[in-house]
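Researcher: Let's continue the batch. This sequence belongs to Reticulon-4 receptor, and it's 472 residues. Same format as the previous ones, please.
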Amino acid sequence: MKTTVVEGGRLLFLVLWLNLLPGAAGCPATCICYSEPRPTVACQQLGLFSIPTEIPTRSQRIFLQSNKLTVVKSTSFSSCHNLTVLWLYSNNISHIESGAFFGLERLEQLDIGDNNNLRIISPTAFRGLSKLHTLHLHRCGLSDLPVGVFRGLFSLQYLYLQDNNLLTLHDDTFLDLANLTYLFLHNNKIKMVSDNMLRGLVSLDRLLLHQNKVTFVQQRAFHDLGKLTTLFLFYNNLTILTGETMDPLVSLQYLRLNGNQWICDCRARTLWEWFKRFKGSSSELECYVPANLAGKDLARLKTTDLEGCIDPPQVQTSIFSTKTRSGKFQSTESPLHGGTPRCCLPDNDKSSIISSKGLPDASSYNSRQITNNPLKEKENISKTKFLEGDPSKNGTHNKQSLNDGPVGTFSNNLDQSMGKLKPELIDGLEPSTAPSRKKKKCTKKCLKNQGSTARALPLLLGPMFWVLLAIC
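Model: Same format as before. Here are the structure tokens for Reticulon-4 receptor:
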């Protein structure tokens, strides 16, 4: 009996020793293999340049992180059908062959992050990994994700894409990820969040988009994010975010929007109104412009603070616009994302007037010579200040009706916006059609010199005389 116990103890010790012995039972040299709690091959931090070929087929976990691996071949794990965890992070991997993870239908965790030279991923790299719930692709130098790269990953819950060089994401990139709860996209170079970029993420709980270069979020960008509780958009290039964009986020609890250059004028009103309904926690939204509101929290402003508008530096206008079929002139401005709202149209946008072909407008006679060269006519017009009609009549600007030919009209949109501007924003500005001082001087000269030449002018100028006479 005593001998049997001793022999049994020796046998147990031998089994344990063989189970832990490097190279035993097909374990790769220098690696450590053990079967409890699950069959595992541990080969981390060994300076390996290639993936070992003697990995036991029954392995469920393989740790190959912190080596010098450069390539993942299509045959590296082809026999490991029981694999559930594969760690390949912190290597020098620059290429993953097509089909490298094919057949790993039980794989749940795949970490290939921190491979700075892995800049391109095959569209089918993760095809067939239907049970994968965690995927690490952080710090890989990725500048683009191919269309369909996450197709079929129906079980994915955690996706780490931070610290890459992503400039944009294709529409429907995450369409199959209905179970995704955490999406990490921070510290990239993403410039816009489009309407369909995040489509399909109906279970998303956390979205980290901070420290990018986001300048614009389209109105339906968050349409599917009804379960989102955490949204980080701080330290981007945002200036405007509408309340309509934020409305679908009915479960939001934690919001960070600091570190942006918020424009606190009429365009911020819908976001301000949304904050009145928001019950969660938020960082401050420090106003960048106008100067009198700089540094103040948008959410704490009064409604009267948002009545005015500013002239954004991005908007550029030209007095020589292209005439439309309706006879009105279209501005050549490049407004902020889809057009500057009517309440925020700058004053210099209301001077898009040029004379029609043929007879020039009357006000130009006083500051330039008459010429038949259209190019010179255009050059002279650019130096002329035009008058602004009385906006109090019929709610629009008066149109000149002199018999010297038609004058280009204002756009209806521009007319309506004038009444919404703050008085202090237009005080001190000379209206586009205000009387010039040169006109008064010219009037005196005309009156002085009419005497001896009045009779000869009709013969010299014909109908033009009557126009000059009306001016003088």
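Researcher: Any comment?
Model: Residues 11-24, 313-338, 347-454 have pLDDT under 50 and may be disordered.
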